[in-house]
Hints:
alpha+beta; two-stranded antiparallel sheet; 4 helices; 18% strand
Amino acid sequence: MHPATALLPLCLALAACGPMSVERAEEACYDRARLAAGPRGMVALGTGSGGPASKFELEISSDYLQGRDPSALYDACVYQKSGQPPRQPLYTRRDWKG
């Protein structure tokens, strides 16, 4: 086996760890910023043939508990993952409801 051929799997593995596109980084970091803005959850109550039923879910991030700014967190996260700043600030995104 040629020595370069033996290194090919290692090179491919290292390339997979490289920076992602800024678009993908924005998607990946959006949820973290959303959770830093406040807890998210739901409460469901109901009754059925099996009697009363309830469901409770709550997500609280350590970023929220530490009082981190969602916008600053988003900017840093996108830059860390892509090596580029976000294409637009978090608070100007149409889907932001923080």
